[in-house]
Amino acid sequence: MVAPAGDRDLPAAAPAIVAGLRISIGSAWVAIVAAEMLIGGTGIGYFVWNEWNNLALTSVIFAILAIGLIGVLLDAVLGRLSRRLAYTE
């Protein structure tokens, strides 16, 4: 009996899918923060822009470090998922 296509194709494609997600999450994170800066209202991008306009550089630096830390954590989570889905013999 032959397994359905989804049962064998998805597990084989999963590492490549997660690798693509891992690459794209950085660009998505930058786009979200930049959109918050432009649109305003809420979010860490708005916070950075507002504090920059208020010349509160300590808060700006703290927010930039928070943005970087969140990016690193997102990459670490997807990296761990990638290693878990990798095929080993």
* Rg, alpha carbons: 19 Å
| Percent strand | under 5%
Which class best fits the helix and strand makeup?
Answer: mainly alpha
Largest sheet features? none
In terms of per-residue confidence, which ranges show pLDDT below 50 for 5 or more consecutive residues? none
Number of helices: 3
Integer average pLDDT: 88
End-to-end separation:
24 Å
Total count of strands? 0
**Shape assignment:** elongated
Could you spell the SSE succession in H and E letters?
HHH
Helix content percent band = over 70%
How would you briefly describe this protein structure?
This protein has helices at 5-39, 44-53, 57-85. With 89 residues, the chain is mainly alpha-helical.
What structural keywords apply?
single chain; mainly alpha; 83% helix
Topology summary:
Layout: H1 5-39, H2 44-53, H3 57-85
Helix pairs in contact: 1-2, 1-3, 2-3
Description:
With 89 residues, this protein is mostly helical. The protein has a domain at 42-89. 83% of the residues lie in helices and 0% in strands. The protein is built from three helices and no strands. The protein has helices at residues 5-39, 44-53, 57-85. Helix 1 runs antiparallel to helix 3 (57-85) and helix 2 (44-53) packs antiparallel against helix 3 (57-85). The two termini are 24 Å apart.
